[in-house]
Write a sequence for this structure.
């Protein structure tokens, strides 16, 4: 693959540090969630992954919607990223909750969401590695 764009970010001090992109547009304190024993003061990798996946999946949905001549421009995608023990380490799981416009019927919506899941770079990166549930609301 020839990259069209490459994002660069550096994290220091792990989950209790800071994440900064090379262009300075992202500059965030990191913190361990309360549920994992931290104070929850900063954002965390799961929130950042959820935001990226939701945005990317929304773009993929728009792409397949335009190809099918179905307006999904008002769709909203919510990514829920869970982290938990998996074997000796930790693993992730994702639920993508897609709210489609009322003008899209259920069958068409399901097909578009499934097609988006095939073309979304985040979906392609996670396929076979973590559980991803598609939920149409």
């Amino acid at each position: 693959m020839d990259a069209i764009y490459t994002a660069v970010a550096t994290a220091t001090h792990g989950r209790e540090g800071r994440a900064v992109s090379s262009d300075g547009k992202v500059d965030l304190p990191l913190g361990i969630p309360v549920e994992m024993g931290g104070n929850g003061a900063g954002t965390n990798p799961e929130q950042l992954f959820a935001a990226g996946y939701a945005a990317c999946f929304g773009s993929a949905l728009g792409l397949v919607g335009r190809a099918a001549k179905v307006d999904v421009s008002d769709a909203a995608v919510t990514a829920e990223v869970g982290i938990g023990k998996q074997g000796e380490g930790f693993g992730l799981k994702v639920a993508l909750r897609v709210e489609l416009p009322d003008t899209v019927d259920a069958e068409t919506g399901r097909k578009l969401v499934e097609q988006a899941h095939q073309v979304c770079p985040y979906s392609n990166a996670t396929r076979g590695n973590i559980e991803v549930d598609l939920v149409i609301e």
Notes: The chain has two domains: 1-43, 45-136.
